[in-house]
Design a protein that fits this description.
Blueprint lengths: L2 E5 L3 E7 L14 E7 L1 H11 L3 E9 L2 H12 L3 E8 L5 E7 L5 E6 L8 H6 L1 H6 L2 E4 L5 H13 L4 E3 L9 H6 L2 E2 L3 H8 L6 H13 L4 E5 L4 E6 L2 E6 L11 H14 L4 H15 L12 H7 L3
Parallel strand pairs: 1-4, 1-8, 2-6, 4-5, 8-9, 9-10
Antiparallel strand pairs: 2-3, 6-7, 11-12, 12-13
Helix pairs in contact: 1-9, 7-8, 9-10
Length: about 300
């Protein structure tokens, strides 16, 4: 079985499905409320586990009801949680999410204990990194923790996949540790300063990220697919068209699928095709972790 170590955030998502997204200062009524386990790190861990990987998680939750529910949710997915620290000085992370009928959303996050994750916490989980085929991280936890995970991954010879979300300036050392960076259009633009509203812009942004030291680049383009730049490959990989219900965590599903496929030995283009399919399936369901498909469900939808 392939192994993936995820370093990242755990949040409880409080979601309202509303008739429309509110304008500034507007109150929209008639919404439907639900609570889902989320956080980019935990979402990716659950997605990878449902795709058949053996998954370990490095993160931090509060000593509260949400923290216990988040940990129990991971354990219910057979995810190893020994490296998820319980912090008694901060609440667990919470995300407030509004979703419209087309599946578009707005999200506000109170990071809570996620901001308490340290390089020392990552060091404490170094065994999980050493045993992983791929290490996967995002940016909802402090940069020092992400950078330490990248350093340990490089020291152990483990591929390090970075989902740079939410976008933030990255240290030069981090780029040099990244085997594959996986931004969406907005993140690619914020990282490079290049408009990515057409293929020429996407290609230019990818080249900048490669020049900074990343081993490869996959830029997510939503329903249009994704652009791959790695080695001598420059290829637009077509997306999968579905009827979206909720786009929350679609990028997490994509990143996890990319990591799992790479861990299984697929090349980056084949891994991106798989990730497009998994990401598309996730938007057909409400919720973050709740929307992640199983390997059997993906196989049933895959083109023959």
């Amino acid at each position: 079985m392939t192994a993936v170590c995820v370093v990242g955030s755990l949040n409880m998502d409080l979601v309202i499905k509303a008739p429309r997204l509110p304008a500034r200062g507007e109150t929209v009524t008639e919404g439907e409320f639900a609570v889902f386990r989320g956080g980019k790190g935990a979402n990716q861990a659950v997605a990878a586990a449902r795709l058949g990987a053996q998954v370990s998680m490095i993160g931090c939750v509060g000593d509260d009801l949400f923290g216990r529910q988040l940990l129990n949710g991971l354990r219910g997915e057979r995810i190893e949680t020994r490296a998820v620290r319980v912090d008694r000085g901060a609440p667990s992370g919470v995300a407030l999410i509004t979703v419209d009928p087309a599946g578009h959303n707005t999200i506000v996050v109170a990071p809570g204990a996620n901001r308490r994750l340290t390089a020392s916490d990552v060091d404490a989980g170094r065994e999980a990194i050493a045993q992983a085929d791929v290490v996967l991280a995002q940016l909802e936890v402090p940069m020092e923790a992400v950078l330490q995970a990248a350093r340990l991954g490089r020291a152990q010879g483990r591929p390090f996949v970075l989902d740079p979300a939410p976008a933030a300036p990255l240290p030069a050392e981090l780029y040099e540790c990244v085997s594959l960076i996986n931004p969406n259009e907005g993140e690619a633009q914020r990282l490079t300063g290049i408009d990515v509203d057409d293929e020429a812009g996407v290609r230019a942004a990818a080249e900048i990220l490669l020049a900074r030291g990343s081993g490869g680049v996959v830029i997510k383009l939503g329903e249009k697919g994704a652009f791959v730049a790695a080695g001598g490959t420059r290829e637009m990989v077509e997306g999968v068209k579905v009827q979206a219900v909720d786009t929350t965590a679609a990028g997490d599903a994509f990143a996890a699928a990319l990591a799992v496929a790479l861990a299984e030995g697929r090349d980056v283009v084949a891994a991106t095709r798989f990730a497009n399919l998994v990401g598309a399936m996730s938007v057909t369901r409400m919720g973050a972790q709740a929307s992640m498909p199983t390997r059997d469900e993906v196989a049933a939808l895959a083109p023959r």
